[in-house]
Structures are given as C-alpha cells and as structure tokens.
Amino acid sequence: MTSAGVKGIGISAHRRAADLSDFGAELDMIEALGVDSIEIPTFDLDVVVGGRVRRPQLAALLNACRGRDVLYSVHGPLAINFMDEAWRLPRHFEVLEASLEVAAEIGAEHYVMHSGLALRQQAAGTEAAYERQRHALSNAGDLARQHGLILCVETLFADFKGDGYASSPSRLATELAAIAHNNVMATIDFSHSYLKLDFDGNRDGFVAEIAALAPYAKHLHVHDSFGRQDDIWMYTEGERLAYGHGDLHLPVGWGDMPWQALMAECIFPEGVLFNIELNQRYWYAAQECIEATRGLARSARIGRTAAAA
C-alpha cells in the first residue's frame, strides 16, 4: 500500500551482458521483488549510437521488457547538459531526441535527465547558462509531449574539486516555474541534493530546499547517504562506506537522511513515482529497501502539480 496519489514504488535495473541477452533475467529478478515499476538505464544499454537509435539493440531491449505487469521509467544519458556551451547544445539535443524515442517505445511515462552543470564563473556566465537551459528544456518539453512523456529534470551535485556548479533544489524549482511546461517536471535525487547543499555549507537547509522543489517532482530517486564530500583518498568502496563519503546509493535507513522530516514537510504532485537507485553492492538488502521506501510512500503528502497550478 502507498499513499493515495503515489503512482508506485520502483527500482532501477542494471545492465548485465552487453548484448542484453540476459536483461530479461534482470527484469525477472526485479519483478519478483514485488515492485510496481522498473527504471530502465538506457544511458548504459547501447541503444543510442551517434545520436541515432540502434534498432537491433532496441529490439533486444523491447523483447526483455514486453509482457510484464510493471510500469516503466527511463533514465537517459547522464551527459546531456543544457547548461553547456551553446555550440554543443545541438549535439545534446540530438541524443535527447533519440533517447526520448526509445523511452516512448518502451512505454515509459517518466524520462529522467540530469539538470545542467557548468564551471564556476562570474554570475553573468552562470545566468547565461540558465537561459540556455530554459530555452532547451522548453523545446525538449514540446518533444516529450509528442511522445507522451514527462521530462523529469534531476537534481545534481558538482564535482568536489570546487570548480563545478550545479543548481540547488530551490533554484531548479525557480527554473521550472519560469519554464511552466506541464511536460517538464523534476526528479528529486535526495542524495545528490544532500551532497550539493553540504558542499555549499547549507546542510541545515536541506529539508526546506527539497520542500521548495517537491511540488514539481513527479519522480524521485530514493537512496541513502550521509551527504559527506568524497574528499579523502580511499582504496576500496568499503572504505568509502566506512567513512560515509560520497553518493553511496545505500538502502534507505543506512545513511542519515532525514526521511521523516522530508515526508512531513514536502508536498509532492499526484502521480509521483518513488524509484529506488540501489548500488549493486547492496542488492542483498533490496527487499529491505523496498519495504522502507513503501513506508515513506505511505506517509507522503500529495497535492497539485506545480506546473499545472
């Protein structure tokens, strides 16, 4: 059971064989966990090559996805960046067009793409990058509408060297309000946002920042972390876990994310999808994580979609 208005609980699939010959087995395993939806990582499935759909690979993917009693969402290429320099935007848009076509053929409703990244620079340069992103996202929203998709723009953190820039959740909310397109909404990645705000010295503002974006968030990436910068040399992933550093993609409850405060303060739009992004290292705790996420969904507060208000 989930709160009325929550579309469901999902989890992200992982690629196994490069030719997708065993991707059906991956989906079988996930479906057996009792989820409502599966996120397909088309960013790592070789279905788009040089900005065009590779039909034989898409056919293998569709064969694995067909006939299942689950919903699908899609995470497209992570490198698409509408805050990039203007001369590179046509290349990003070409890859997005092909990726949206793939998502539509899978039968997905939510298409996840990353919000923009830029170099830290003078304010005028940053604002110009935001202007490029607004224009590109508006056009992308029109294309998503033609495919019956909702473009869900994901919160990010920049690199830990200090020379990168990513939007805060509240700034992304401001940008989506300016675009005001029903097919351009948000994906809140809670851990990404936690890391971003910790880096900026605004860890105490985390819940309020997420609450500002929540009315736009038709899609959520649910996983835990400690919001700590990955700024000490480590030899193994186990050491990063011991220190609690970086974007660990832990099961819900393993980190120190203030989940109860988030569910109490945020109002999500009707049809929000809770999708778990779990590191394969911790897949043995997948069922535990699904049940914890169902608990969050049961307590989620649902309101109107911001772009349609």
Task: Indicate the multimeric state.
Answer: single chain
| Category by helix and strand content | alpha/beta
Mean pLDDT: 96
Kindly state the number of beta strands.
14
N-to-C SSE series?
Answer: EHEEEHEHEEHEEHEHHEHHEEHE
**Number of discrete helical segments:** 10
Which band does the percent of strand residues land in? 15-25%
Architecture overview:
- 39% of the residues lie in helices and 19% in strands.
- It has helices at residues 23-31, 55-65, 89-106, 123-146, 169-179, 190-199, 206-213, 237-243, 259-265, 286-299, and strands at 6-12, 37-40, 48-49, 52-53, 71-75, 110-114, 117-119, 150-154, 164-166, 184-189, 217-222, 267-269, 272-276, 301-303.
- The chain is globular.
Question: What are the defining features of this structure?
Answer:
alpha/beta, two-stranded antiparallel sheet, eight-stranded parallel barrel, 309 residues, 10 helices, globular
Provide a quick synopsis of the model.
Helices cover 39% and strands 19% of the residues.
Secondary structure elements and pairings:
Blueprint lengths: L5 E7 L10 H9 L5 E4 L7 E2 L2 E2 L1 H11 L5 E5 L13 H18 L3 E5 L2 E3 L3 H24 L3 E5 L9 E3 L2 H11 L4 E6 H10 L6 H8 L3 E6 L14 H7 L15 H7 L1 E3 L2 E5 L9 H14 L1 E3 L6
